[in-house]
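Ticket #536: bound-state structure for 2-acetamido-2-deoxy-beta-D-glucopyranose.
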Amino acid sequence: MHLIGALAVLAWLATASPTSQYSEHLQLTQRPNGKVGAHFSFSQVLDGTKYHALEAIAHEFGVASLDLAFTQGKAGGCKALNLDGIECTPAGLVLWAWLDNDLSPPLSSQNSSDFSSRWTGLTNALAGTFCASINQIVPTKVSAEPRESFRVDGVDPEKHWLRYATLPREITCTENLTPWAKLLPCTTKAGIASLFNGYTLFDADYHSMRVRLRKQCNSASLKCEIELHQDLIVILDPVRKNYDRSINWSLRLLFEREITGLCPLDVDGSQVTVTLPGGKNANWYGASEPVKDSTGNFVFPLELGKRVDFGLTYYDQEPVRDNIFVPTIQLHRHLTGYGRERGGFNLRLTNNDPTAPQSVTLLEVLPWYLHLYLHTLQTTTTSVSDNTRILATPNITQRYQLSIPRSRPSILEFSLALPPASTTTIHYEFDRAFIKYTEHPPDANRGFDIPPSVLTVHTEKPYRIFSEILLIALPTPDFSMPYNVITMTCTIVALYFGTVFNLIVKRLEGLERIPPKKAWWKFWMKKVDEVKEKTE
Ligand SMILES: *[C@@H]1O[C@H](CO)[C@@H](O)[C@H](O)[C@H]1NC(C)=O
Ligand SMILES: *[C@@H]1O[C@H](CO)[C@@H](O)[C@H](O)[C@H]1NC(C)=O
Ligand SMILES: *[C@@H]1O[C@H](CO)[C@@H](O)[C@H](O)[C@H]1NC(C)=O
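RESOLUTION: The complex was predicted; output attached.
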């Protein structure tokens, strides 16, 4: 029986392996502050031999490249992990896609109705696939068409059409994780995905779920394949979960699960890698033994049907502060001004590289209810070491799209070169619109989340940095007034009704006089009666 089963698995592998190239990897990184970063990465090649939901969507809407991220929490912990090729997106949902424009002649920007309907179709399909409100990305209202940002290798901007949108208030939850995990060939039954546990993943300080899709076409055979990468990044805090407040964690403590063995479709074998600060060692315990690899990381290879569970205690007497990662380019955005009428943004772009200038593109997509004043735009560049020394103003090339109320956002795109070891500050001001009362969200006084600015750093491998999401309060009518009126009216009606109801329904009866008992009382009442008689 076992032999037949094994043969069946082998036969299945033999047919499956040449078509579906699949690989997965889990990287656990111990941070000096006690947090543990877990990066689950899964990649597969979809070549049309088996049905896959995302492949069907990509073919239907002519998607050449798509990036979708669902994120919760602050991106700081993710940035410190320094994940190669992974951008630390801010909270909410970020989606950008390049759609094919291979019609001849290519559609111009004047004739975008076809693209709008395809983009709407794509967002609706993704909304259905991931159980998220991606369908709220109304083509004109929130979507933008940047020119210089989001360039992808192998995608010709002349022959493709780019759309970018964010939903900063989108909340990510288990209902998004389940469909996301279902896109994996082994789902959560085997492989590293068997660690997925909604309770622990969504308890993390930061978690981000990604889908990256790239279409690769062979120009000779005209055959297209789709590369699908799925990444899940979580920053867990085992010290918070631990009773003795020390760095002592295991897969069981982090995820309340263990790995059930290798996913059989991952023919090259996969592993769990653990990186400790400064390449130091830890005390290991549990069923599985680590192997130290050439880079100083600890590796747990996965095998078919063999459970993996391990734990470690880590204590660093002399933590190395020097290897705390500082990104070369940093971007921060702050709100300036006060009141609910006007305001401004301050953007700080820092180039920490002491020798090389850096060419970047900054993209701001602002909702129409912030009226931007381009004449207030100011740029200053100062040296990092000496904040007062003003360096040459960078050469800015800018593109600006004016917003149209209720129909399109304003887009500001700058290309500039950041001098070495410098901080560039960009400041501009805006007015806040007084919007209709029906346009306010149900919790009107919370404010509006302004999408992050995006900085594209043009290096050999261009990457993007996202700024903070800002919460902006618009002039808000006193929504509590109707409730005050209702409360007061109800109170008055209740008081009036009670009194009138009492008068109508209750019969008035005199109290029976209780015979007096005490001598002084008898005497007193006798006197009262006498006086009464006399006066009558
Ligand atoms: C845009 O395309 C549609 C159909 O593809 C066509 O009917 C329409 O005339 C075009 N509009 C312009 C301005 O070219
Ligand atoms: C680490 O935690 C495990 C399980 O919670 C426990 O058995 C072990 O004694 C702990 N080790 C240390 C050094 O505290
Ligand atoms: C500024 O940039 C533009 C476009 O890249 C270029 O044409 C121009 O020569 C630059 N000016 C300076 C002073 O470098």
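RESOLUTION NOTES: The radius of gyration is 33 Å.
TICKET STATUS: resolved
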